[in-house]
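S1.2 Input.
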Amino acid sequence: MDPVLARFSPATREWFQGAFPGPTAAQTGAWEAVQKGSHALVVAPTGSGKTLAAFLWSIDRLASRPAPEDPMRRTRVLYISPLKALAVDVERNLRSPLVGIVQTAKRLGPSRPRSR
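S1.3 Output.
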């Protein structure tokens, strides 16, 4: 297993390994930075996994950890798109991972994530 994938929850890790042969260089670099709390600028060609590089860590954390009790702290990810078309494209590209991770979590057992 790729070491960067070991840091994801079991459901996300298993879904990713079933969906892809492995992380791309762009994904590995971005996830290593984000997992450390650093910023990342991902520059890579079309089809290289930039959307998952940008969002999978956040999706994993949203799905595998309960929402904070304090309503003022419930917004944990904010995505601002410079173009409406890009926002629509990103939303479309994240549907499959969201569904796949939730289905994998249901199959794995009781600590399944909730789709939000």
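S1.4 Remarks. The chain has a mean pLDDT of 88.
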